């Protein structure tokens, strides 16, 4: 049952991505031959208004096959005949749909779990906060003279301070106090050693969902940059997960409860959205880059055959990478 839920969640994320492409391409009047979720043999298919809708065996991707997307076409309703704005919106809509899905899923997560505050639920033993005399129910008001209004701001300020001593202004009951502390490094990050109180708020939950999506996106881009530049440790690279690994994560999250399942679905959706915005051949980011170059060149297009060949080569590399990561996933399952 958990595996089925995992496959449904992963398929739903792919469906939302492709639906973004499909909706805006249809709206622009592009001829669409196929809207497919998954890869491999068809499990289900239906043709309506000239478009084949298909559900395929392996839930590792999907596609919207548009007339004239990777080849020359004289069809006035082909993708290549549409304006740069229409084509750009049709392409960027897929990743944006995944990012919006992440925000929408995180709103009920934060409603149910609550939003982290700057008031302490717990001061961890042997932490910088404990050494500075901070206690449970204390509320941080400012750090180094800068007002602190959220836990994210508290965490970010601590990180940017890079382990230097900080002046903490805090409230204990009705009394305002000041102390100094020096954050300690834990798991590669500077921390003061507190557990924040959670506040349930229907008003703050949407704002927190947007903040979480933004901060997680930044963290993902930093991770990708370190991966590309070789700054990432070998152990972390070896633990990168593909479709099989993701399904395993979904299965575990399903055991932990609906909140964790929704949270993981949101994060995986965001991963797919951010990854697809990278300017790599065969990804949406590459097509966006080509369209922007076309706009700069005054509408002069890259020949469809050349663009198609570049995308085809990029797709082969991505498939090879996917097979390799899936192979590593399977090895981990046996281990």
Q: Name the helix and strand elements from N-terminus to C-terminus, one letter apiece.
A: HEEHEHEEHEEEEEHHHHHH
Number of continuous helical runs = 10
Mean pLDDT: 82
Q: How many strand segments?
A: 10
**Considering DSSP H and I runs of 4 or more, what fraction of the residues is helical?**
40-55%
Could you name the ranges where pLDDT drops below 50 across 5 or more consecutive residues? none
Strand order of the largest sheet: 5-4-6-7
What would you call the shape?
Answer: elongated
The end-to-end distance, rounded to whole angstroms, is: 23 Å
Major sheet summary line: 4 strands, antiparallel
Q: What structural class should be given to the helix and strand makeup? A: alpha+beta
Radius of gyration: 24 Å
Portion in beta strands: 15-25%
Keywords: Hydrolase, Membrane, Metal-binding, Metalloprotease, Protease, Transmembrane, Transmembrane helix, Zinc
Subcellular location: Membrane
Membrane topology: Multi-pass membrane protein
Main location: membrane
Topology of helices and strands:
Blueprint: H1 2-27, E1 32-48, E2 51-66, H2 84-113, E3 115-123, H3 128-131, E4 139-143, E5 146-147, H4 151-160, E6 166-172, E7 175-181, E8 184-186, E9 189-191, E10 194-199, H5 204-228, H6 234-238, H7 243-256, H8 258-276, H9 284-296, H10 304-334
Antiparallel strand pairs: 1-2, 3-10, 4-5, 4-6, 6-7, 8-9
Helix pairs in contact: 1-2, 1-7, 1-8, 2-5, 2-8, 2-9, 5-8, 7-8
